Amino acid sequence: MNMVKELDYVTERATVLSAFLKREVMIDFYLPTVLDDPYGLSLLLINDGQDLPVMELQQLLTGLYVDGRISPVLCVGITAGPDRKREYGVAAAADYLGRGDRAAAYTRFILEELMPFIQNRYNVPGFKDRAFAGFSLGGLSALDIVWNHPEVFSKTGVFSGSLWWRSKDQDDVTYNDDQDRIMQQQIRNGIYKPGLKFFLQCGLMDEAHDRNNNGVIDAVDDTRDIVKELLKKGYHPEDLSYLELDDGKHDVATWGKAMPVFLKWGWGR
Fold first, then answer.
1. Rounded to whole angstroms, how far apart are CA atoms 255 and 246?
2. What is the domain count for the chain?
3. Are 54 and 72 in contact (CB under 8 A)?
């Protein structure tokens, strides 16, 4: 009984001063209290870390860990800054309104400042695997970083991702889904990167827009099209998990409902 009580998750908070972002970044760490094998710890970075207490991530992790349903994962919640719409996005290209113009700087913060900070703070000899997840625009950011840095990350989780991110206004008469959605094009024009695994979630109530009038909301179309591009690129169905929630909305409650599915997909045992 005492052993079960020792299995738990605790939280710690730190601040990282970023030269790339020119600001302080607040970080929340969710740590398992018992770790038999230091090489058995996985790492999960999560954008929009300010949403994690709302979905009660600490309690969720504790429940799954105590029940033996997930292996130990160090979760790192990265609080979004005031320039969220500039720092999140696709590093290679801003959208048609210029948003995401600081995504490259955010990527450098993750790789060159946050990752070494985590390594030094916890003195982990090496993580079993590393993943990056996020919600909405933070999900797009996580997918972009994982896609472009498979030498660092092996998994990504995208919850209601802003996969509509586009290089042209959809009201432009020349706008074309197949050419102007930035992340879909990046995957299509990229190369197959072995070892990557993708978890993508969307909800049928994420929004109401249906730009091509096909009876399917844009959020679902855009997510399904990412899956299609990944399959065409050479990934197998077992490399992908697509979760479509009938009652899913664009909110923290929905993402909290999907989070245990994601955690068991990535680190279940």
1. 13
2. 1
3. no
Pair of tokens at residue 16? 């990282």
Do residues 80 and 88 make contact, with C-beta atoms less than 8 angstroms apart?
yes
For residues 105 and 22, what is the distance between their CA atoms, to the nearest angstrom? 10
Name the pairing type of β-strands 23-32 and 73-78: antiparallel
Separation of alpha carbons 9 and 14, rounded Å: 17
Q: Which residue has the tokens 């409902």?
A: 257
Output the CA torsion sign for 68, 37, 35, 265: negative
CB count within 10 Å of CB 19 equals 11
- Which one-letter amino acid corresponds to residue 139? G
Q: Cα–Cα distance between 156 and 200 in angstroms, integer? A: 8
Q: Starting from the edge strand earliest in sequence, which strands make up the sheet with 197-205, in order?
A: 9-18, 23-32, 73-78, 42-47, 130-135, 155-159, 197-205, 240-249
- Cα separation, 166 vs 177, in Å, equals 9
User: Which pair of tokens denotes residue 154?
Assistant: 């092996």
Nearest Cα residue to 9 out of 44, 47, 35: 35
Mean pLDDT by 10 residues, the chain (269 residues): 62 98 98 83 98 97 95 97 98 97 98 96 91 98 98 98 94 88 96 97 91 86 96 97 96 97 97
d(CA 24, CA 48): 15
Distance, CA of 210 to CA of 226 (rounded, Å): 17
Sequence-ordered list of residues with C-beta below 8 angstroms from that of 48, at least 6 positions apart, any chain: 78, 79, 80, 84, 134, 135, 136, 138
Range of the domain at 171: 2-267
